[in-house]
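Re: that chain you flagged

S.,

Sorry for the slow reply, it's been a week of failed gels. I finally had a moment to sit down with the sequence you sent. For the record, here it is as I used it:
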Amino acid sequence: QEQVVESGGGLVEAGGSLRLSCVASPRSLSLHDMAWFRQAPGKEREFVARINMISGSTNYADSVKGRFTIDKDSAEDTVFLDMKTLKPGGTAIYYCIAKPIIGREYWGQGTQVTVSS
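Prediction finished late last night. Pasting the structure tokens below so you have them in one place:
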């Protein structure tokens, strides 16, 4: 059964850092992309970052460029989101998405990130 599991969320002070992880399974998914989205309280879900699991190319939302880095371990179908200089506006549930080469994408349950001011 396909599964996407995030971890690493928590409470951090503004200006601090967190590293999120996401593992997709099973390995037979043959992933093309993995990405992070987030949803802040009372707001719509928004794109954060994406990485191509084959080429390693990345793209980011303007709001996180220069502060967040998405990286991968293709051998383990795992992606990471290094978040630095976090702002209170970064408080949200962060969701990981796995998109296979063929077929629909899969979403995780999310991990809560709370940035205190």
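What I noticed first: The radius of gyration is 14 Å.

Talk soon,
D.
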